Amino acid sequence: MTCDSVKWTLTSGDVTVEVIATDDGFGNITFTYELVSGIADLNGFFIDIGNDGGDISKLSGGNNMKGSDSDGDRLDGFDIAEEIGTVGGNDEDTTSGTLTFTMAELGISSLAELADAEIGIRATSVGEDREDSLKLADTGTYCPVEPPSDDDFPEWGQDISHVVFVFNQTVGDTSGDGYYTIKVDYTDALVAAQGNDLDDYIDDFLFALINDDTNVPFLEPDADLMGVVIKGGLQTTEYYAYGDYNTNGTDPDPLPAGIGFALPGDKGTVDPVNEIDLALSVDDSGDFIFA
């Protein structure tokens, strides 16, 4: 499941430890830590919630975050600390793991508050000779998940030359493939007036098609548009599912099963083009006036 997160990247020399905090939606925060580069044994995990210092600077023995970190920045203590490995090199290295706390234990009410927190990692047995040690510490970055786009179509990089609408209905289907397909050729005036992002004017386009009973028969107000083939310029001609049929945003989709034509695989027109049930053009007004 995709979710918001807070990320810390703790680096010194060849060693980088990545820490990611996520919220399970039930008031629990899980910290996942991993040594992503270098050689080291991770011993201690420290959290300073507000990056304002705390009473904890030591766990046991050499497993401490006293003094300054490995970048020379002074450490002012932490609020929470957990042993995640042992100092001494007599067991296998700890290089990854998870820790889970409740929001109440952390003293926060939202995941985003952790962006201000300083995470500290105590690492020993560092490097090829395993003789060095590190105190890694830094604040994080809140990474909210971008809301899903409502777009069905990409903005075409070149001028659109035509589109092919695919409706889920047999009325009007002259080719016998079970779909009513309508090709509309663009003019320079239409591109200039409407642009090359079909999302910006798809509702107006459909309204005009549905309400032009003379040139566009068989379309009712509840016509079920499945998707649109877009052709234009040197870009590869592609089909894009529409509305409830769209499950992947603005990425191209396979044509509906059994449709009578195929995509060309290049900048060309669907093949065979005579499988399209109705071909239209627009006038030079820049509006959706069909002929």
Quick structural overview:
With 291 residues, the protein is mainly β.
Describe this structure in words.
With 291 residues, the chain is mostly beta strands. The protein folds into two domains: 5-143, Sandwich (Immunoglobulin-like), CATH 2.60.40; 162-281, no CATH class. It is 7% helix and 34% strand. The chain has three helices and 16 strands. It has helices at 103-106, 188-194, 202-211, and strands spanning 5-12, 15-23, 28-37, 41-48, 58-60, 63-64, 80-83, 96-102, 118-126, 132-139, 141-143, 162-167, 180-185, 225-231, 238-241, 278-281. The strands form four sheets. It has a five-stranded antiparallel β-sheet with strand order 8-3-2-1-11. Strands 15-14-12-13-16 form a five-stranded mixed β-sheet, with no helix packed on it. It has a four-stranded antiparallel β-sheet with strand order 7-4-9-10, with no helix packed on it. The chain is elongated, with a radius of gyration of 30 Å.
Strand order of the largest sheet: 8-3-2-1-11
* Sequence stretches where pLDDT stays below 50 over 5 or more residues: none
CATH architecture title of the largest domain: Sandwich
Helix content range: under 10%
The radius of gyration is 30 Å
Number of helices: 3
Q: Under CATH, the topology of the largest domain is which?
A: Immunoglobulin-like
Largest sheet: 5 strands, antiparallel
Total of domains: 2
**Helix/strand structural class:** mainly beta
What is the H/E order?
A: EEEEEEEEHEEEEEHHEEE
Give the overall shape, derived from the CA principal axes.
elongated
Strands, count = 16
Question: What share of residues are in beta strands?
Answer: 25-35%
**Averaged pLDDT:** 95
- State the distance separating the first and last CA atoms: 49 Å
